[in-house]
Write a structure and sequence with these properties.
With about 270 residues, the chain is an all-alpha fold. The protein has 11 helices and no strands. The protein has a single domain, classed as MetI-like fold (Orthogonal Bundle). The chain is about 75% helix and about 0% strand. The longest helix is centred in the C-terminal third of the chain and has 34 residues.
Length: about 270
């Protein structure tokens, strides 16, 4: 066996161990969410969806779930639109201070969410916008824009830069070229950005905890559960949050991979 194959085998094994380490607690929580017992024990003692039924009828969980969906959809649309504009600006134009522009645009995810949440709380308090669902939307848009920008910019980097110029030479104005050339080419990454940013917003709890006030999102409700008496409801709510978030992330990945696969087949 060659040294390259040994290294590849070790790297794959390390990746597998890392995935097992990350996902084992989540899988265990998902399994125990179907246990009829109040405390996690093995064997489970049966299969029950009782905890899901309880959270579905609980007065605080359903509004939090609806708030998360509303915020996620709005955040996805706004952050993807701004992310597309920022990515296209980076792709098309050269200007003074461009490196600073890129650093500033991609900065929010590099800031610890605790610090970002506190800063958002202070800023929104000063302009009397804290404590409502729109506060969560505002804060999450700031946090999610770089994710959308990165996905769309990656897609634009794969486009032949002469395509847009060719459209101009054929008589199309800037808006026509945008509609007929840029948007169709970037559409898979736009849909992927919508799914990814909604997943990030739906799953994020620290920024939402500081800015939501009485308009709790579902992850904040989980945090409140953890602050009180430990309840099996946490397993059920956490499983719902994880399932929706992972479904959106997988959807984003499928959209990107399908487009790449289609382009390879066409080539």
């Amino acid at each position: 066996m060659s040294i390259d194959r040994v290294i590849a085998y070790l790297l794959r094994s390390w990746l597998l161990l890392a995935l097992i380490f990350v996902f084992t607690p989540i899988i265990i929580s998902f399994i125990f969410s179907f246990s009829p017992k109040h405390y996690p024990t093995l064997p489970l003692g049966g299969f029950s969806t009782g905890w899901y039924e309880k959270i579905a009828t609980e007065a605080t969980v359903l509004p939090a779930f609806i708030n998360s969906i509303k915020a996620g959809v709005i955040v996805a649309v706004i952050s993807t639109f701004i992310g597309f504009a920022a990515a296209y600006t980076d792709y098309r134009y050269r200007f003074f201070g461009k490196n600073f522009y890129l650093a500033l645009a991609l900065l929010p995810p590099t800031i610890p969410v605790l610090i970002l949440g506190l800063v958002m709380l202070i800023y929104l308090s000063r302009i009397s916008l804290v404590g409502e669902l729109h506060s969560v939307v505002f804060a999450h848009v700031v946090y999610c824009i770089p994710f959308a920008m990165a996905l769309i910019r990656l897609r634009l980097a794969q486009m032949n830069p002469d395509l847009e110029s060719a459209a101009w030479n054929l008589g199309a104005n800037s808006w026509r070229a945008m509609r007929d050339v840029i948007l169709p080419f970037t559409l898979p990454s736009i849909f992927a950005a919508l799914a990814l940013t909604m997943a990030v917003s739906f799953d994020e709890y620290m920024i939402a905890f500081f800015t939501s006030g009485i308009s709790e999102t579902l992850p904040v409700r989980v945090l409140v559960f953890l602050g009180g008496r430990v309840s099996p409801r946490i397993n059920a709510v956490g499983s719902v949050v994880f399932t929706i978030s992972m479904a959106l992330v997988i959807l984003a990945q499928i959209l990107l991979l399908r487009r790449r696969g289609g382009e390879r087949a066409a080539a």
